[in-house]
Each structure stands twice: as structure tokens, then as C-alpha cells.
Amino acid sequence: MIDILTIGNDVLKEKATLIADIDENIKTIINEMIEILEKKNGVGLAAPQIGEKKRIFITKVPGDIIRVFINPEIIKTSQELETYEEGCLSIPGVWANVVRPYAIGIQAWDINGKLFKIEVDGVLARVIQHEIDHLNGILFTDRLNDKQRERVLKIYDRKCKSK
Question: Distance (Å, rounded) from C-alpha 33 to C-alpha 86?
């Protein structure tokens, strides 16, 4: 089983590269990501979180199917913003309130190389935005003010030291 990279790993701060061809290697990475996401009981996982600097992420929001997004691009955002508590498999054990658009439109390619566009809101929209941030080298802690970020990182450090 591949490990999930945690905060402090430089790969998490780098921008992922576009996928030119959805070949067997890409499909293998996606299948590994699905296995990891299910084992960790997460709602989303981006390829950089497992050390693959590729523009791929998957989602598995409760009550929804597993979704695969390759070379995703947000093409529309709502004016309405929502604050919601977020966590991250790369910063395990800590959560903080993050403000994001409530609804988005996104286009991406699926695992079979077919372009699709969808409009989503609520939790799925939030998870997609969180995962796209990973593809751009942004962690949810980067979206917090300095005081909030410091508090969250102190909690994370304490949890790591107590293991």
C-alpha cells in the first residue's frame, strides 16, 4: 500500500502536470488511489498526495459514486460562499473552517478519456475544490488566516509527537 504524503513534503506544494495520455500507467495510479481512499475512509484524494505530480483526483462523497477527474478545470463558481469544516488525509487529525464557493461547474476527463462537464454544490463541490487545490500545491491550511493556520499546525504537531 502506498503511503499518503503529509504536510512538510515538498511534493504537496508543487503544481501537478497535465496528463497527455490516459494509458495503463494512469489507470493503475487511479486504481491505487481508489484503494487508498477506501482504506482511509476519505472523501477525496489527489495524485500529489501519493507522490504522483499528475492532475488527477478522485472523490467518494457519502451517497455518491466514486468519481475520477483527470486534468480538471473549474469553469464556473457561485457567488454564494459557504463556511465548512475541512480536514485532509495529508494533515490527519485536524480540521478547520474554510470558506469556499457553494457551487461550481467543472470539466475534466474520465478514466476512459471522455470529456465531461458537471455542475455540483454542497459537499461534493467543496471536496472538488479541495482536491483541485492539491493539484495546484495548495493545502487547506493555506486558506486560513495566520492565527488559524498556526493553531491547526500546533494541534497537528502535538498529535504527531504523541504517536
Answer: 20
- Rounded Cα distance between 55 and 19, Å, is 6
User: Could you read off the pLDDT tens digit of each residue along the chain, which spans 163 residues?
Assistant: 689 999 999 999 999 999 999 999 999 999 999 999 999 999 999 999 999 999 999 999 999 999 999 999 999 999 999 999 999 999 999 999 999 999 999 999 999 999 999 999 999 999 999 999 999 999 999 999 999 999 999 999 998 887 6
- Rg over alpha carbons for the chain, rounded to the nearest Å, is 15
CB 82 within 8 A of CB 55: no
Domains parsed from the chain with CATH numbers = 10-161 (3.90.45.10)
Residues carrying an active site annotation: 131
Sort strands 91-101 and 44-46 into parallel, antiparallel or unpaired.
unpaired
Q: Say if CB 139 and CB 91 are below 8 A apart.
A: yes
